[in-house]
């Protein structure tokens, strides 16, 4: 007999279904979204040198992963709500910054999702020659398979992620064991390449390393669907942070010590990497199996990114910054199927593009999400009574302040150290986020629809009371930062930058280093002027 009280249509956060998801599946999901293997570390070895690579792999967890993970754990324990970090920013900073956070998170998720589909089929292409049509159809198949898993529910996503994560961990454990058994050279020599300074090496390594340790805030978006999330998620974080660190450090140390040739380490086909440890010391067959694990790794990340990306869309809709039907949920499991469809469709549209094209815009969005999460944590730590926080960062307020400072400093460094192409790509895309908010606020009403007293509207602008001022300050800040960053990038990239970008991109804007610098300067000036115009318009229309 059907439950007479069951709603005919589930929609929005109020109707999400809580599932009993244990610590292990949450560890699996965290591991998938933040790691899924050490793929990508190979690029650090020739850039930084083997010695500096090992040192950075030891230091980055201390100054970035552990602090950011602990901040997210404490906030997740205090506010285990659907939408997680998005709702933390809403509570701490209000509607404007909530919207910047939410739109940035959704755009970041949409692009990230597609990156992992592209990478998975690229790895398959190493074994099997694929036409463009065949590759595209396989990418579509991957999207459909994980779309179905996500529609089934968060519990199923967790089970699949756990199985995949166990396979990945075992594979890298084998690499580490084989590497250590065949240790024949000093993995720390040389510390840095002869033609690379320590500062330059640190910059290159941080750019890759921070990327490898990103995503600790993303699981918070699912907290409203996990029973006892305020206990489960912090416990899972305490397990997964050292697990990820060991996944990166041990195979890399063992691999360099056993096969050397650090100058030739790369993720590209034909280069040296973790697979080589097995092919040289055990057999070609084991190397082929390891490459299959690489495909599984990308699938596992996509699986969880699909889940978190759809929740971002759900929250935008639920807070009336998007069409209401975007918040529709499946009747039985409460999965945001419309959000999942949107993420899957966008991924299907973007998969023809190259990996390089897709990732070039990611850094700015990652930094915006991370920085706003930390700022919200600083504010809410003062507002939330301590007795409402079941998990607290050891060391109290001084340690919390130190951790927040570390994360914010690294956020700034990350935008500057990934390269001029990444800076410019992210800069051009991030500028549309305030415009998206203004358009959606005027169209759908925003938080005023649900909470008119707390979030009043200015009838002259149909926005929040000081939204034009805030947009003006944001654009002016971005403009100043872009102009200052232009001079830093010119110094940091050095004399070889023009040749490097021409070789890397071949043609187009990103291949011309001087042109990129000029575009950054011009964009900074224009954006600063736009910010002034928003501010002046705000003074006229937002008088108290």
Automatic annotation (TrEMBL):
**Segments passing through the bilayer:** 21-41, 53-75, 96-124, 136-154, 166-184, 196-216, 237-262, 282-306, 337-357, 363-380, 401-417, 423-440, 472-489, 515-537
MF terms in GO: transmembrane transporter activity
Q: Does the keyword Transport apply?
A: yes
Q: Which GO terms describe its cellular component?
A: plasma membrane
- List where in the cell it is found: Cell membrane
Task: Extract the InterPro entries matched here.
Answer: AA/rel_permease1, RMV1-like
Task: Output the Pfam families linked to this UniProt entry.
Answer: AA_permease_2 (PF13520)
Q: Report the main location listed first in the record.
A: membrane
Query: Which keywords has UniProt assigned to this entry?
Result: Cell membrane, Membrane, Transmembrane, Transmembrane helix, Transport
Q: How the protein sits in the membrane?
A: Multi-pass membrane protein
Please name the PANTHER family in this protein's record: AMINO ACID TRANSPORTER (PTHR45826:SF2), POLYAMINE TRANSPORTER PUT1 (PTHR45826)
UniProt-recorded name of the protein = APC family permease
Source organism:
Hominibacterium faecale
């Amino acid at each position: 007999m059907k439950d007479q009280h069951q709603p005919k249509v589930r929609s929005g956060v109020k109707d999400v279904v809580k599932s009993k998801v244990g610590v292990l599946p949450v560890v699996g999901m965290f591991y998938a979204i933040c790691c899924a293997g050490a793929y990508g570390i190979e690029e650090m070895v020739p850039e930084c040198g083997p010695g500096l690579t090992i040192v950075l792999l030891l230091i980055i967890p201390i100054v970035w992963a552990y602090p950011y993970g602990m901040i997210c754990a404490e906030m997740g324990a205090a506010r285990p709500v659907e939408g997680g970090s998005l709702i933390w920013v809403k509570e701490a900073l209000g509607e404007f910054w909530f919207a910047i956070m939410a739109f940035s998170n959704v755009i970041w998720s949409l692009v990230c999702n597609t990156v992992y589909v592209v990478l998975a089929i690229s790895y398959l292409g190493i074994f099997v020659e694929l036409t463009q049509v065949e590759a595209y159809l396989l990418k579509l198949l991957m999207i459909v398979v994980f779309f179905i898993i996500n529609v089934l529910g968060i519990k199923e996503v967790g089970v699949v992620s756990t199985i995949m994560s166990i396979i990945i961990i075992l594979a890298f454990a084998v690499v580490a064991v084989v590497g250590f058994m065949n240790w024949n050279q000093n993995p720390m020599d040389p510390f840095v390449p002869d033609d690379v300074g320590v500062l330059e090496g640190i910059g290159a390594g941080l750019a890759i390393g921070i990327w490898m340790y990103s995503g600790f805030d993303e699981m918070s978006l699912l907290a409203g669907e996990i029973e006892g999330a305020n206990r489960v998620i912090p416990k899972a974080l305490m397990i997964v942070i050292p697990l990820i660190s060991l996944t990166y450090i041990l195979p890399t140390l063992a691999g360099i010590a056993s096969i050397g040739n650090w100058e030739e380490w790369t993720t590209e086909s034909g280069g040296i990497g973790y697979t080589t440890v097995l092919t040289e010391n055990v057999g070609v067959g084991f190397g082929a199996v390891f490459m299959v694990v690489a495909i599984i790794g990308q699938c596992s990340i996509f699986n969880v990114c699909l889940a978190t990306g759809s929740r971002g869309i759900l929250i935008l809709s639920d807070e009336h910054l998007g069409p209401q039907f975007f918040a529709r949920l499946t009747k039985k499991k409460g999965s945001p199927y419309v959000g999942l469809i949107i993420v899957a469709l966008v991924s299907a549209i973007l998969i023809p593009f190259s990996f390089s094209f897709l990732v070039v815009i990611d850094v700015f969005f990652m930094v915006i999400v991370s920085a706003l999460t930390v700022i919200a944590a600083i504010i809410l730590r003062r507002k939330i009574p301590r007795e409402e926080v079941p998990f607290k960062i050891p060391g109290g307020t001084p340690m919390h302040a130190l951790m927040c400072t570390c994360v914010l400093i690294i956020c700034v460094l990350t935008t500057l150290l990934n390269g001029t192409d990444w800076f410019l790509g992210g800069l051009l895309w991030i500028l549309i986020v305030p415009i998206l908010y203004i358009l959606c606020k005027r169209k759908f009403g925003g938080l005023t629809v649900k909470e008119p007293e707390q979030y009043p509207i200015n009838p002259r602008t149909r926005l929040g009371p000081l939204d034009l001022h805030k947009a003006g300050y944001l654009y002016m800040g971005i403009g100043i930062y872009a102009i200052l960053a232009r001079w830093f990038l010119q110094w940091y990239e050095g004399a070889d930058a023009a040749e490097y970008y021409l070789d890397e991109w071949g043609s187009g804007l990103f291949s011309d280093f001087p042109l990129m610098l000029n575009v950054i300067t011009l964009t900074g000036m224009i954006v600063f002027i736009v910010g002034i115009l928003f501010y002046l318009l705000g003074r006229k229309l937002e008088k108290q």
